[in-house]
Amino acid sequence: MPLEALFLCAWVSCGKISKKELEKECSMVEKTDVAAVLELIRPSLQADGGDVKLIDVDEDGTVTVELQGACKGCPMSQMTLANGVERILKERVPGVLRVVPAL
Q1: Which of 8, 11, 30, 37 could pair with 16 as two cysteines, CB 3.0-4.6 Å apart?
Q2: CA atoms of 27 and 81, how far apart (whole Å)
Q3: In angstroms, rounded to a whole number, what is the distance separating the alpha carbons of residues 94 and 61?
């Protein structure tokens, strides 16, 4: 067991942090992880004249992105978002539950 995990378990057993707080802390999605995966996706979108911009990552695992360029007005943008961006983020970043477009 990693040292960090032992430390957090000790805090739970001592009552310094609740089990619910521990689960929340461990399930938080790192914005840097999401940004790194978007960098892997970006060349495919750019090849078709589009792009993607990371707007926000919420505590509940919701990633907000803005499709740009040709992707912004494309009638297939929802499919690109769901079957491309969301699928890849869910596969590669633990804790990502959904990807939504920026309003």
Answers
A1: 11
A2: 23
A3: 9
* Contacts with 1 (C-beta within 8 Å, 6 or more apart), sequence order: 9
Q: What is the DSSP letter of 76?
A: T
Give residue-wise pLDDT tens across range 29-73: 899 999 999 999 999 999 999 999 999 999 889 999 999 999 988
pTM (two decimals): 0.74
- Helices (DSSP H) in the chain: which residue ranges? 3-14, 19-27, 31-47, 70-73, 77-79, 87-92
CA neighbor of 99 nearest in space, from 66, 71, 58, 63: 63
d(CA 57, CA 59): 7
Q: Rounded to whole angstroms, how far apart are CA atoms 76 and 48?
A: 12
